[in-house]
Amino acid sequence: MSQQRRSYQIGTGLFILLGFAALAYLATQTTSVANFSQGPSYVLKARFTNIGQLKLRAPVKLAGVRIGSVESIALDPGKLDALVRLSIDKRYNDVPDDSSAAIFTSGLLGDQYVGIQPGGSPDMFKDGDEFVLTQSSMQLEDLIGKFLVNGSPQKPANPPAEAGHGDMKPATNPPDTPPRQ
User: Fold this and answer.
1) Which of 106, 129, 150, 181 is at a distance of 20 to 30 A from 161, taking alpha carbons?
2) Would you say the pTM of this structure is higher than 0.90?
3) Would you say 36 and 113 are in contact if contact means Cβ atoms under 8 Å apart?
4) How far apart are CA 147 and CA 152, in angstroms?
5) DSSP characters for 15-40?
6) By C-alpha distance, which of 37, 141, 45 is closest to 90?
7) 10 Å Cβ neighbour count for 117?
8) C-alpha angle 45/139/103, rounded to 5°?
């Protein structure tokens, strides 16, 4: 009897350990910590008026491919905007210097990342260069507010005039009906 009880305890313990291992694996896969090894890199800077929930080590993507990560985030006291330093892998040293950087969200409520839209310049970014064109994070609260304010049905351009005003068009008479006999 005690042998059977002991085997249940061991089985339950192994099941719980397996569950924790699966959770740890999923946590590292969904936070983009895995699948990116930081080797030699160079730094690019970007200024944003609002970074939303952007975090350190968030991915930097170009055409959907992770090419780097967010190295640091600081408030620039002179301009009162966020200065974000991006660590870009040296393999991707051919980013045109007229490219733009924007903060996007993965999915509806996912993590935020910096997306780079490539430009067409023949010159490439060098270590320490700064993006001229940036687009700040879209805040979900702002979008909901705009939808609630502007999303209601539009009023007609020429509302019908109220009775008693001279703007009304004359009503058309109903078609003649044959007289009753």
Assistant:
1) 150
2) no
3) no
4) 8
5) HHHHHHHHHHHHHHHHTT-TT----S
6) 37
7) 14
8) 25
